[in-house]
Amino acid sequence: MGLGPGGREMTFRTSAPTAIVAAIVVVVLATIYFSMRLFSGMVNDVEVQQFTLIRSLVQTAIIDAENKALARAELIADLPRVQQLFAAQDRAGLTAELGRMLANQKNRHGVDQAQFHLAPAMSFLRLHDLSRFGDDLTATRPMVVALNRDRVPLKSPAIAANGPGIFGGTPVFDAGGRHLGSFEVGIAFGPLMAGLKSAYNLDLGLFVEERPLRDFAKGVDPERLGDQNRFGKYIRFESTNGALISAVTTPEDLAAVTEPVTYVREVDGVVRGVVLVPINNTAGTPLGVIAATADFSASRAGANRTLIWQAAFALIGIVLLSGFVIAILRGFVVRPLEVLSKSFEGVSKGGSLAEIEGADHFPAEMQPIVQVYGRLRAHRNAAATKG
Fold first, then answer.
1. Structural domain ending residue among the three candidates 133, 156, 187
2. Do 181 and 222 sit in the same domain of this protein?
């Protein structure tokens, strides 16, 4: 027998299985660790894809709304009767011609603003607010200024007198090509966000910078600008679920969003992914932020279940492998060595030697030792017979 560290006696029967079992534990745990790292990376990749999808859905919805607003504006601006009435600056005639159309478009498609402008940027007729006209939009509506200056169609989110919206506008010309002014259609953010919630189970909130909202949107209900909707420099103007949006966004989150931002936040025990998408007008001036959130608990729960199962499989693997190794060592190494040790003890004591039972089943590496014992046994027994 040898001595281990600290002078302790070492035996193959205990030391070898212990070392092998320890190696098994280390290998299995290392395998589980790297497997979990790999799976964690896969979960992160899935969540990155979810973030990308949410951002794409929001941005695509805004682009689609801009295109729809512009298409409606161009369609109306090309109507000969509209051109005639606008050239005559007939507000009553335009209202009679288009008022019903706007009501139907608002109910069916979320179109809540439609306005004619005179160059360079004076409001001529708001079909959605007939009593408000004649105000100069130069300082508040860069898209209207650009429409009448460049005389090309434009589309962009904007803060108008009646609140934020997604606008498409076009210059208006008469039959002879004379520039009359411009016309725009605005689609509200609320129906757009409601559509995304219905189609993709997203909850969304629109946060608009308070200062331009107060300065430009004079027709907005003052109650919507109250303290209950204030988030730092922003006003929560629209939301599909006010309590949830308030829980997943803070003034600090919104403070400096110049490009899409993503993060994960837990609300009432549910892990949610959040995407913040900045909103700019046609001049590139920041107007606000759209926050969109989705339930990420499924991917996180899947990761937790996988961790539990992998830990269980690791424990089972360690137990089974350790048991198998110990059984093999004891059956093929330790037990034969014990039998041989006891047999050779008889050699040193003298007298006849017994045959080793089961020696035929010993490992091949031990057969030479068995043969040596057999020769000693034959010699000893022969000497005892002669004596």
1. 187
2. no
